[in-house]
Amino acid sequence: MSGRDLKNFLFLHRSDPTDKGQVFTRIAGGNRSNKYRQVDYDAVRALIADRKQAGDEKLGKVQQIAQKSKAGKEHNLQKQHKMVWHKEQLRLTMARRQAQIELDGTTRLLTNELPACTQFFDECEAYNAMLSADTGDFKAATVDPVWDLREDLLFWLQQHAEPISQGEGEELREEHQQITEQVESVKTQQKELMQRLQEEQRRLEDELNLPYLQNLLHSGEKQQEIGIPEAMEHLECPDRKLKESVLQEFLHIDMRYQERLDELEKVNKETISSNTGGWKAEDHWTFHVILEQYPHDLPHRRQLYLDRLRKHLPHKTRAALVSHEEWYAAYRLYHDQVRSIQHSWTRDRAELMGKTRAMFAAACTAHEQAVEAKINHQKQEDICAHLREQLHYWQEIKREQMAIEAAIKARMREEEEENRKMEEEKEKKRRAKDHQRLVEFYEEKQKARAAAAEADRRRMEELHRLMAEQAEHDKERVKYREEQIEKKTQKRREAQERLEEEEREKERRLEALRQMVEPHVEVDPVRMMGGTTASKARMGIGAEEDINIQTPLFHLHGFTDTQVASDNRVRVEQALREAGLHTSEYARHILKDIAPPRPPRKDQE
């Protein structure tokens, strides 16, 4: 190791000024001092085991809290699912009732209007009754025995609860074995039955999904009309060019909307390539039904239906569910856009049909009016002459009527003028009476004000007198308080002077103590201005010299164990400690009187 590496082993230590008496305590205590105890590894291991056990217990509590939190969250989700299920059940119940009401009304209407349908509906009711009877027989043969077996097992468990808990009885084990075999046999039978039912359900669904049945079901749906409506072609219009241009507009509308549909289909070609998004039909149907049960305004809707889908479709990962959700959203958006375009298409065609009817009707009306105008021109002139005669007669009557009305209005104005004068006279008399009452009221009010002013003046004189007396009393109190404050101030000043004198006395004593312990060191400017060992090592001075790596890095200025043990005070303290008297007043008195091996320095006396 070279001198350049010494800087890596330099350590700084600054003693704590509060540990002035610890050095003597450690020296006096020796190897058996309570400051230096031997390590009890067994106790440490036991402490570590206790800490580890406590940590395991806390970890178990944390896990229990996490489990309870998870169970609480699951319970909360289950409650929200139940609310959604209840609303869906009510909606389906109402829909079923409404459908049944509509079916009954249709049946009744068709039976009354078409007697030939009576036999068909009678056959439907007989078939429905047969299905209900088959369902009852199936339940009695398959479901009821399982419930009976469950009740028998519960009764057997209640009857043999104590022997089972104690684990006694060979007969009980044999009976338990027989019951287990019987339950397994019932499970096997139920499994086979469910497989047969699922196979039958699949076969019926395949039959219902046959193309000709699907065509029958969708044959009643309203198809989008295209081309020129037949009703518009049969409308009458005197202007042939107008009719052709208006009917051509239907073809323009169809072409424009068909282009929009083709463009939308091209954009969403991958989305509509499959009706189930690459899933099985049953899984997609489950996804669709569950998604429709949760309304769009429900809080945390996506979290709820994803949790429900995860439980109903455990073989699907969350990524698969999210991917199918995105596909389903795009699929629904496509069909919504198609329906919107078809709705706009139908609306525009209906508006155009209405405008066409109105336009053709207006054209026919204008044509008829032009034809009739020529026919009725002469008749119109005769009618105008007759009307002029009637107008002259009506003007004569009107002039006479206006003269009579002017005379009536003149008489009415005279009567109104007379009534107005009479009302003015009455108003003058009323105003005179009101003025007299106001004068009297103001006089009474002025007298009341004068009396109140006199009372206020007397009260103010009384208050001034009371305030003058109170001012004299307050002056005496203020003078007394000033005298008391002056006395307190004088006392505080004297106390402050005493404190300052005590502080000056304390500084004099401390200065005397500092002079007593002041070290006397010779002046060595060379050593003071020279470099230290650390600075020389940092500068590389003396790095070429051979260094003995066995020598201590720093000089020791303490005491060896032999030097410490040679002190009589240490041996006496050891003997007192063995006797159990090292903490007594007697031991302190003896140790104080024993002299050290060499006298202490003057600055440590």
Largest sheet: none
Overall structural class, as computed from helix and strand content, comes to mainly alpha
Radius of gyration: 60 Å
Mean pLDDT across all amino acids: 79
Give the low-confidence spans: 1-17
Shape descriptor reads flat
Q: What is the number of E strands?
A: 0
Q: Give the termini separation.
A: 44 Å
Helical element count?
Answer: 17
Helical residues, percent: over 70%
- List the helices and strands in order: HHHHHHHHHHHHHHHHH
Strand content: under 5%
Structure description:
- The protein has 605 residues and is mainly alpha-helical.
- Helix content is 78%, strand content 0%.
- It has 17 helices and no strands.
- It has helices at residues 22-29, 41-113, 117-159, 161-166, 170-208, 211-218, 230-233, 240-267, 281-293, 301-312, 318-375, 377-516, 525-529, 533-539, 561-565, 568-579, 585-593.
- Helix 3 (117-159) packs antiparallel against helix 5, helix 8 runs antiparallel to helix 11 and helix 9 (281-293) runs antiparallel to helix 10 (301-312).
- It is flat, with a radius of gyration of 60 Å.
- The two termini are 44 Å apart.
In short:
Helix content is 78%, strand content 0%. The protein has 605 residues and is mainly α. Helix 3 (117-159) packs antiparallel against helix 5, helix 8 (240-267) packs antiparallel against helix 11 and helix 9 (281-293) runs antiparallel to helix 10.
Keywords:
mainly alpha; 78% helix; flat
Outline the fold blueprint.
Blueprint: H1 22-29, H2 41-113, H3 117-159, H4 161-166, H5 170-208, H6 211-218, H7 230-233, H8 240-267, H9 281-293, H10 301-312, H11 318-375, H12 377-516, H13 525-529, H14 533-539, H15 561-565, H16 568-579, H17 585-593
Helix pairs in contact: 3-5, 8-11, 9-10
